[in-house]
Design a protein that fits this description.
single chain, alpha+beta, Immunoglobulin-like, 4-stranded antiparallel β-sheet, 8 strands
């Protein structure tokens, strides 16, 4: 019975240690951004940050398989409070999104870069990047599309 008590004591101790909240990370948590109540922090809808893009779709036309293309999506915070982008997730591993990590003040501009790697791809491509931020709604979709052609062999 002593071994059983010892194992229970270790398990309970591990649970207590793992549940302690000593998180000193300064980044905003995804939960805060996903929760509509905490995303606006008590602001009236007209006081909330708003992300406004110049364009949300880019057609890269035809590219040769293996090429990488980078597309910049320019935006402005047209809202009344600081805009915080928490994450840019993409629809596949061939696409990567880069975004500003600092808060964007009202009236300030920024850019999100989306890089598409056509290695191993062919034909029509339609990829998305989802911008998760403290806006209402909390996500904005960006689109990249085009055709990947296989190079001719001589």
């Amino acid at each position: 019975m002593n071994k059983l008590h010892f194992v229970i004591l270790i398990v309970v101790g591990a649970l207590i240690i793992s549940c302690s909240n000593n998180n000193t990370n300064e980044n905003i948590s995804t939960g805060v951004v996903k929760n509509s109540k905490s995303a606006d922090k008590g602001l009236k809808p007209y006081e909330a940050p708003k992300i406004t893009f110049n364009e949300n779709t880019h057609d890269f036309g035809k590219i040769i398989q293996g090429e990488k293309i980078a597309v910049n999506y320019y935006f402005e915070n047209t809202g009344k409070s600081d805009l915080v982008i928490n994450k840019v997730s993409t629809s596949c591993g061939c696409t990567v999104g880069k975004y500003p990590k600092q808060a964007i003040k009202p009236g300030e501009k920024g850019k999100i870069e989306v890089v598409f790697d056509s290695k191993g791809r062919k034909g029509f491509q339609n990829k998305t990047a989802t911008v998760l931020a403290n806006t209402q709604p909390n996500h904005t979709m960006l689109f990249i599309k085009g055709v990947v052609v296989i190079p001719e062999k001589n």
